[in-house]
Write a structure and sequence with these properties.
The complex is a heterodimer of chains A (163) and B (260). With 163 residues, chain A is α/β, with parallel strands linked by helices. Chain A has helices spanning 17-26, 39-47, 78-90, 101-106, 137-153; strands at residues 2-3, 13-14, 31-32, 60-61, 69-73, 96-100, 128-130. Chain A has 5 helices and 7 strands, in the order E-E-H-E-H-E-E-H-E-H-E-H. In chain A, helix 1 packs antiparallel against helix 5 and helix 2 (39-47) crosses helix 5 (137-153). Classes of the chains: A alpha/beta (163), B alpha/beta (260).
Chain lengths: 163, 260
């Protein structure tokens, strides 16, 4: 991104279109209103006024068709795994997924139990893993910032982090 | 010599045709009187005795079970200590009056416990709900228990809302062995049993005869087996980790709109 200040016309910014698209995408991540277990409480706290997801341009959408980001907050069991996959399939591309908490990463305290899917990445591809049980809102926000960095690089360089 | 299974047997009388050990009514009564005498002697906490680690359940027949002092017949009839709460005495009196074959005893606090044969379950349940002294109209919980070789059991916790204190634990041993364990349904007596019985069927495989809609409630409907059974083996195939299309190897990478 370059700023040619006052050389030709005032206030003109030149940049590759790719960067402009990525910037607009990462600055308005609308996430799916979707809670499975106790991590959803922390996700709600992160979205509320004290931590305020709105300042990242993130507001929740109740429809997967209007969402860019799916935060999977909680334990995924066999029965809900199909529903998560269905919601993910309904989201329009480009779409991203954050696995929030130990359960969504690999089953967490329920790893290997009956009826538990050991990690949401066995069902849908995951972009960012946020550990914790449950993660504090600061952790989730850090995960979102990492996702924003990742989105900013899309199509410009190969992803440095292969997840 | 005691082991876990003998604990189960003495504490919760099992129907004779269920376990390998029970051979007839004699064993049934003998075990039951054991349970009572034990509950009279140490206030109903037979389970807390330390199990002996060595022998397994299979190599110890029921007839050679612990030689503890048997209750005198007079004691057996009044299987409640004088300092038990009045509610317990009332409950025991009402139960014994209506069903002389039952042997309720004081469990702890104001809980009364009784083991009910599956054939009598519906009658006893309707009685304890409608009786003026008991009015046990609230089925607090219905749970299933797996005692391995000794069979499956259903435990009913009953509380009286109008009468306040009386509380009753009913234990029913499922009939039909492990493969076809079944117990009469009490949905028509306490409607809240509906989902509880579906849960017991789902996780432990106890069929409830007369249930209006006995199907899985927690697990998906194509689930195989009943996972809370002690001998359950998880046979699910492993799942593969999912990747985004853009991160597949370059040879078969799909065209993506933001990849130039």
């Amino acid at each position: 991104m370059g700023l040619i200040d006052n050389q030709h016309l005032p206030g003109i910014i030149t940049l590759p279109l790719r960067r402009l698209v990525n910037w607009s995408r990462k600055s308005s991540l609308w996430y799916l209103l979707f809670g499975i277990a106790c991590c959803a409480i922390e996700m709600m706290a992160t979205g509320a006024s004290r931590y305020d997801f709105d300042r990242f341009g993130m507001i929740f959408r109740a429809s997967p068709r209007q969402s860019d980001l799916m935060i999977v907050p909680g334990t995924v069991n066999e029965k809900i795994a199909d529903r998560v996959r269905l919601l993910y399939d309904q989201m329009a591309e480009p779409r991203w997924v954050i696995a929030m908490g130990g359960c969504a990463i690999n089953g967490g305290p329920y790893h290997g139990e009956y009826n538990i899917v050991d990690g949401i990445d066995k069902v849908i591809p995951v972009d960012v893993y946020v550990p914790g049980c449950p993660p504090r809102p600061e952790s989730l926000m850090h995960g979102v910032l990492m996702l924003q960095e990742k989105i900013a690089r899309e199509g410009i360089e190969r992803p440095l982090v292969r997840v | 010599m005691r082991d876990e299974t003998s604990d189960y047997l003495t504490q919760s009388v099992l129907a004779p045709d269920l376990g390998k050990k029970g051979t007839g009514d004699m064993a049934y009564n003998e075990k039951e009187s054991h349970g009572q005498s034990e509950n009279m002697n140490d206030s109903g906490n037979g389970v807390h005795e330390t199990p002996q680690p060595t022998p397994t359940a299979a190599d110890q027949p029921a007839e050679t079970q612990p030689e503890r002092p048997k209750a005198e017949p007079s004691q057996r009839e009044h299987a409640v200590s004088p300092d038990a709460p009045d509610e317990v005495k009332t409950t025991i009196a009402a139960l014994v009056e209506a069903f002389p074959s039952l042997k309720p005893f004081h469990k702890e606090d104001d809980w009364t416990e009784v083991v009910v044969p599956a054939a009598l379950l519906k009658d006893v349940a309707r009685f304890v709900r409608d009786d003026e002294r008991l009015k046990l109209n609230f089925l607090s919980s219905l749970s299933g228990v797996d005692y391995r070789d000794a069979g499956l059991q259903v435990v009913y916790h009953l509380i009286s809302i109008p009468a306040g204190r009386p509380k009753l634990i009913m234990k029913v041993n499922a009939e039909g062995g492990r493969d076809n364990a079944h117990v009469p349904s009490v949905v028509d007596i306490w409607p809240t049993a509906n989902w509880h019985e579906r849960e017991a069927w789902d996780l432990l495989g106890i069929r409830f005869d007369g249930h209006p809609n006995l199907k899985r409630i927690l697990l998906r409907e194509d689930w195989i087996g009943h996972p809370l059974r002690k001998d359950y083996v998880d046979s699910r195939p492993p799942r593969e980790r999912q990747y985004k299309e853009t991160w597949a190897p370059p040879s078969d990478r799909g065209v993506r709109h933001d990849e130039s």
